[in-house]
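pasting for ref
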Amino acid sequence: MRVQPDDTSRQAPAVRPRGWLRATIVATLALGFVGAAVGFIGFLSQLRGVEIKPARNADGIVVLTGGSSRVSDAMELLAGGYGKRLLISGVHPTNAASDISRTLPDNHSLLRCCVDLDRSAVNTRSNAAETRRWVKERGFKSLIVVTSNYHMPRAIVELSHAMPDIELIPFSVVGDRWRDEPWWTSGVTFRLLLSEYVKYVAAELRVTLADIGIELLPDGDQPTGSTAPRRPATAQAN
């Protein structure tokens, strides 16, 4: 009497590798998710919930346009003597100082004497490049950086990479929406923070690679041929 071969024993080796592959993929995805969640929590821990005046004065002040009240807060710092001059980086090319002065009626004299406008920057990286030129021309050694609290970590990454020898003093602007409701209760704010976290991680990665000699993009402004639309003076996206 012939004994039939055991089909189960023949199929087992083929089934086992597929099971290990599936488990490996699931474990990798789980670790990636946990890593991203931990990184996001670390990113959130850097964000200030209240505005705190700089602990000391600096040679200059730079404000990166894009969020509500950034420019007015920067003007208040300039009026308070926290810096000698102010650079407003990311102003729309068609906007003049008079356009800005209409939104800041109490600061006409400061705008005329002590404010410079940068109309070239289109993103945070080019903000840093234009700020570096301005700082070098003025001979400044320290700088107060004014931008929204959620944007500050990425701004510091870009600015410190562009100007490693300049002391940067952050001044985080806290918007009304951040004050009025916890970020986790607002879908709009939560999506904004997730988007900014992704940009922050990308900036950290690019800067880290640049430090070891791997440039993903040439240092400086936007790639040649960029024609991305720009928003009005103090409402550009960073």
